[in-house]
Specification:
By secondary structure, the protein is mainly α. The chain is globular.
Length: about 260
């Protein structure tokens, strides 16, 4: 009897999709070490001079400072809002809960160009000129769904009897939240901070529309890509950003899983 060999087409498709998606990204660090200015094979040689030149560009450093400021403030604001929103969604049942949660998650499905252009019109109409402030407001709107999702997973398995025991012992609501709730969900908070910071730091469309004369790092990179002579420096910078983003997301995933385990 002939044995039929079944090919796992779904697995083949998944592998092919991942290769198609990430192979260009993996080529980015490779060309950043190329001694030539032309991005093509064969490579002319190995060099670190493109990385060394990054610290000598004042505009780049200022753009990086702008991104760090925007990312840090966005992470703090989005995580603070996401913390209380997630607690309300998990702990309480109230009219319009599903609707409000859907509205919070809406930025995940709205095209970025629509959000950016709408926010630009809104901010100009109320007298806010494009600046880092408007970028922060836009990034909080986009990063909030990520924070709520992470914090909900931290609160889902939270044992409410711990808070009730604290109340029975005479602790106040604020004291219970500070001494009981926050320590347990702290890994989720750290994960939310890291993810929302990464989302803000890497975001381009909103920053392009709302940054004005204070470009963030992705906007600066876009402005440099148009000049072939500056492309190697851009590849080096992009490689560093890629590495830092992957590290931040790995750390965030570690704390997210730790938050779930601590809740269990």
């Amino acid at each position: 009897m002939t044995k039929v060999i079944r090919i796992p087409w779904l697995a083949v498709y998944a592998i092919a999709y991942l290769v198609f998606l990430y192979l260009p990204v993996l080529l980015l660090p490779l060309f950043s070490f190329n001694d030539g200015t032309i991005v093509a094979f064969p490579l002319k040689g190995f060099t670190l001079k493109w990385y060394a030149q990054l610290g000598q560009q004042d505009t780049l450093l200022q753009a990086m400072v702008n991104s760090l400021i925007v990312g840090s403030v966005t992470a703090l604001m989005a995580t603070s809002l996401g913390l209380f929103a997630a607690r309300a969604y998990v702990r309480y049942r109230f009219a319009g809960r599903e609707l409000s949660e859907g509205l919070v998650m809406l930025p995940l499905v709205i095209p970025g160009i629509i959000v950016a252009s709408s926010m630009l019109v809104l901010f100009i109409s109320i007298g806010l000129k494009p600046s880092l402030t408007t970028v922060i407001l836009g990034h909080v709107f986009v990063a909030l769904p990520f924070s709520v999702s992470i914090m909900k997973s931290a609160f889902d398995d939270f044992d409410q009897s711990l808070e009730e025991a604290a109340f029975d012992l005479g602790e106040s609501v604020v004291g219970t939240f500070r001494r009981v709730t926050l320590p347990i969900v702290a890994p989720g908070i750290i994960a939310s901070l890291l993810v929302t910071f990464t989302v803000s730091f890497d975001e381009f469309v909103l920053a392009f529309f709302l940054s004005g004369n204070s470009p963030t790092l992705p906007v600066y990179i876009w402005s440099q890509i148009r000049f072939p002579a500056k492309l190697p420096n851009t590849l080096a910078l992009g490689s560093l950003l890629l590495l830092s983003s992957v590290l931040l997301l790995l750390i965030a995933e570690y704390f997210r899983r730790r938050s779930i385990q601590s809740s269990d």
